Amino acid sequence: MQAPVEIFRSDYKSPANWVTEVTLDFDIYSGSTIVKSTLSVVKNEGSTVEKGDLILDGDDSSVKLKEIYLDGEKLNSGSDYTLTSSQLIVHSSCFTGKSSFKLETTVSIVPEDNTQLSGFYKSGSMYCSQCEAEGFRRITYYPDRPDNMAKFTHVKITADADSYPILLSNGNLVSTTEKDGEGRHSAVWEDPFPKPSYLFAVVVGDLGSIKDSYTTTSGRNVHLEIFSEKENVGKLDYAMESLKNSMKWDEDKFGLEYDLDIYNVVAVNDFNMGAMENKGLNVFNTAYVLADQKTATDGDFERVEGVIGHEYFHNWTGNRVTCRDWFQLTLKEGLTVFRDQEFSGDMGSNDVTRIENVKGLRGRQFAEDAGPMSHPIRPESYVAIDNFYTATVYSKGAEVIRMYNTILGEAGFRKGMDLYFERHDGSAATCDDFRAAMADANEADLEQFSRWYTQKGTPTVKYSSSYDPSTSTFTLDLSQHTASAPDNEPFHIPVAFGVIDSETGAELVESQVLHFKEASKSFEFKLSSDPKGTAVPSVMRGFSAPVKIVSEASPATQKTDLLTLAAYDTDGFNRWEAGQKLYTEAIFTQLAGDDVNLDGVYQAFEQTLTSPKISDDSIRAYGLMLPSESGLAEDMDIIDPIGLHDARTAIKKKLARKFQAGVAELYDRLTKEMSGAPFEVNSKAVGKRRLRNTCLDYACANKDTDEEVIASAQLAHKHYFEANCMTDQVAAMSILSNVHGVPEAEKLRDEVLSKFFDDANGDALVLNKWFTIQAVSSKPDVLEDVISLTSHPEFTMTNPNRCRSLIGAFTANSAAFHAEDGAGYKFIGEKIGILDAMNPQIASRMVGCLISFKRYDENRATKMRAELSKILEIEGLSPDTFEIVSKALS
Ligand code: ARG
Ligand code: ZN
Fold first, then answer.
1. Which of 469, 413, 474, 458 is CA-nearest to residue 439?
2. Taking residues 572-578, what's their average pLDDT?
3. Boundaries of each Peptidase M1 alanyl aminopeptidase Ig-like fold domain copy (predicted)?
4. Which of 426, 446, 575, 650 is packed most tightly, with the most Cβ within 10 A?
5. Residue 73 to residues 54, 102, 228, 373, 705, Cα–Cα distance (Å)
6. Do 130 and 198 contact (CB within 8 A), yes or no?
7. What are the residue ranges of helices labelled H in 231-270?
8. For position 394, what pLDDT does the model report?
9. Mean pLDDT of 201-226
10. Is the CB of 384 under 6 A from ligand 1?
């Protein structure tokens, strides 16, 4: 193994030479693909690199160099060029005096052996590519860095015509040839837009597709086509609808139109990540394209819409303006996630989308930022850039973009976006360029705001308030501090703020954004009228900054304040948040073994269950749900996974018992309302299903005696067999999968599990759910189930989705994974060893579940550390996994 090299942001230098134009020729044969490239090279006059050598990246575990010519002259190894395991260096002596030259190389690669799924590889019967971040160097020798933008003027693909009728690459189709004497045919593609190599793509296969078209505002007619394996063509319609909605939304919201005549999307079974925004040829993990009533849950539909939007929006934020270097990744990812979140909110409900996104951030990003992988959204160094496609770069990055929007207002943000494109279209930019465009377009001071790019950790904002009736003055005191990074300088935190009258629910000051820039500060307000009750602050409305927000009022005041906000806050997010905080407090009291007074919780729950003021069923459902274990864990210094699980379950049971009648009534009413209605995917229908399934969950949580266990299993069983869609089936099966110890109920559980498996009829995405639901079960013997499922004929480690569906899902089953005997750790440790040899990207992601051992008690920490040490000793460990494990152990 090559010693892992750490790369630093501060070391960026533009290269000595630029490649400006590329032609590629792919000749695909089973077991060997020949790639010929011609690079037009010019000197970079602005470079400060001392030696003028042409440096081409190439991973010699994948590419084998056959020939190399410079302006037609054959080059010799040693005197003309040097080949290392990762680079081909063409000595400047070969081109001194030339202002430009052409370099031709021929390499061979074996996509059939590429198990890393980076570069050019085979997935089932098709070939496809994944080049971001550094996959292109596994296809051919090239300056594989995002600041080198070149025109790919001629990409020719040749393959067997019968096996591979579809030949795709970026841009426009220039020409095709008919099947020749050897049964081969070819296609030539040209992409008129200069692009970095990470946006290159090729797809070759025998695919089905659906076609549509979209006319842009300025009248360009765009041919839209979505490809998949033929048996899945019936599941592409929702993706196509979402694509057209995305195109329209970006025109309406940002004035951005599509710029080519073709937009192709391909669904691929074996894919490391979600999807990839290659210019004019998106490649998608099947899980984010395929969706229909029978096989996809509402969550899946939502993800398809979100990811289709995400990749489409990248065409401007990523492709037209790309990143200068990989440290700038959040420039395109944070911004594009923000855009896809806004799009999803506009397609459905903004409050619902906001709640879902914040739940996601708290459950994953907060944990990451509290562990050894904590990094600023713009990291300072990396070993393997693939390790930095993180919740921090993506989700916290999106929160940082959202803060510009909050600080500058929607119109100001749009002005900043316009200026950003005016300045940087067609080039590779930095996060500082983006911030400068936002500041300059608005004449705003965003100097201090830059700390969001340089400082890591989740800040905690504490607040207290007081009211002086003699002067009608309301005072809000704020302080900020980052516990995990105590040296942080104060952030510029936009605090969206209002004051609510506890008696009338009236807003006592105009809702506004405070600019909190100091370690601590007091803000004073004159109230519009004296409060009839008390004046209750509503802080961080809409989750206006990615921070933890903590009240310093007495526990009693906090409780009454939260009840006020849960009932009256005009901000939908904070109404929901108030309920969550009440639940959280109850769960932690239960965990501490103290007497829990549930009066407040009952009041909030009842209000949510019955209030006629709540018109959105999703909002009602989310208001009834308890915070997730992963979100709650972030409020504990030392995480007690089993205690937390038990405490949460206990509170849920108490709610279920107390509101048994109300929940049953709502469930029955919804069942009646929905019966016979056609299946639809829109916020109304989704909300109904979400609320009814939440009721089912509470109805089934109420089980102390065997009779109650059987009764809830029967209810879930009935729900399953009456279901008309995957959402309802999954809801019922998830409940049943927890059943254990009561034979009569277990029979119902097993019946549903095997019916689900049979009905899946081999559908890969449905089978993934079957594996996942069993892996996240609360059964005490779940690890045994998981181990035996690893030898199920449908299980394989080579398909990332399948691997994640069982192994990854088990690591998310916190109480089981963190079993005190360490069996969960041992199981995962072994799997990571096997995975690393096959697919380092997947292995290094998986190892994340072991690295936060400092957050656990000594017994667990020791056992987690032991597994990490074993992994570190693996011979030939990938740099990817090495980076994560060594950081954790250092
Ligand atoms: N740019 C892609 C997206 O967010 C993700 C590519 C991730 N690739 C990787 N090797 N980590 O849409
Ligand atoms: Zn992206």
1. 413
2. 98
3. 457-550
4. 575
5. 16, 10, 43, 48, 85
6. no
7. 237-254
8. 99
9. 98
10. no
Chain-centre distance of CA 49, in angstroms? 36
Taking each helix axis from N to C end, the angle separating 329-347 and 298-313, rounded to the nearest 10 degrees, works out to: 130
How many C-beta neighbours within 10 Å does residue 599 have?
10
Residues 497, 513 contacting (CB under 8 angstroms): yes
Which of 273, 322, 382, 841 most suits a substitution to test ligand 1, by most atoms within 8 Å of the C-beta? 273
In this model, does residue 2 exceed pLDDT 70? no
CA distance 271 to 118: 9
Residue 659: phi, psi to the nearest 5? -110, 25
C-alpha span between 781 and 870 (Å, rounded): 26
Average pLDDT (420-437) is 99
Closest atom of ligand 1 to 394 CA is 4
What are the structural domains of the chain?
A: 1-206 (2.60.40.1730), 212-260+267-315 (3.30.2010.30), 332-454 (1.10.390.10), 459-545+547-658 (2.60.40.1840), 767-890 (1.25.50.10)
**The tokens of 10 are what?**
């501060």
Helix axes 782-789, 764-775, angle to 10 degrees: 150
Residue appearing with tokens 């990839």: 276
| ipTM (interface pTM) | 0.98
Instruction: Copy the structure tokens of residue 422.
Output: 């005016």
The residue type found at 50 is E
Sheet arrangement for strand 126-130: 119-123, 126-130, 202-205, 166-169
Residues in the chain: 890
Residues 6+ apart with CB under 8 A from 436: none
Cα-to-centroid distance, 788 and ligand 2 (Å): 36
107: helix, strand or coil = strand
Closest ligand (CA of 284): 1
Chain centre to alpha carbon of residue 762: 27
pTM over 0.95: yes
Reported as a single tens digit per residue, the pLDDT across 343-397 is 999 999 999 999 999 999 999 999 999 999 999 999 999 999 999 999 999 999 9
Q: Is 547 in the pocket of ligand 1 (CB under 6 A)?
A: no
Taking the centre of ligand 2 as the mean of its atom positions, its distance from the CA of residue 748, in whole angstroms, is: 42
Residue 308: Cβ within 10 Å count? 28
Most ligand 1 atoms within 8 A of CB, residue of 118, 389, 393 to mutate? 389
CA 701, distance to chain mean position in Å, is 30
Rg (CA), the chain: 28
Q: What is the pLDDT of residues 810-851, one digit of tens each?
A: 999 999 999 999 999 999 999 999 999 999 999 999 999 999
- Write down the pLDDT at residue 441: 99
Selected catalytic residue, list 132, 134, 311, 368 = 311
Measured by CA distance, the residue closest to atom 3 of ligand 1 is: 276
Q: Is 104 a catalytic residue?
A: no
What's the pLDDT tens digit per position in 740-798?
Answer: 999 999 999 999 999 999 999 999 999 999 999 999 999 999 999 999 999 999 999 99
- Residue 443 clears pLDDT 60, i.e. is over it: yes
Nearest-CA neighbor of 33 among 139, 133, 135, 137? 139
Give the integer Cα–Cα distance in Å for 534 and 725: 48
Task: Report whether 151 contacts 22 (CB < 8 A).
Answer: yes
Find where tokens 């009646």 sit: 672
| Cβ proximity of 133 and 198 under 8 Å | yes
Q: Cβ–Cβ contacts within 10 Å for residue 834, how many?
A: 12
Using CA of residue 643, residue 649, residue 654, residue 655, what is the dihedral sign?
Answer: positive
Residue 136 Cβ contacting ligand 1 at under 6 Å: no
Cβ-based neighbours of 530, under 8 Å, separated by 6 or more? 469, 472
> What is the distance between the alpha carbons of residues 190 and 154, in angstroms, rounded to a whole number?
5
Helix (H) or strand (E) holding 409: helix 397-424
Identify the pLDDT of residue 702.
Answer: 86
Determine the Cα–Cα distance for residues 5 and 727; give it in Å rounded to an integer: 46
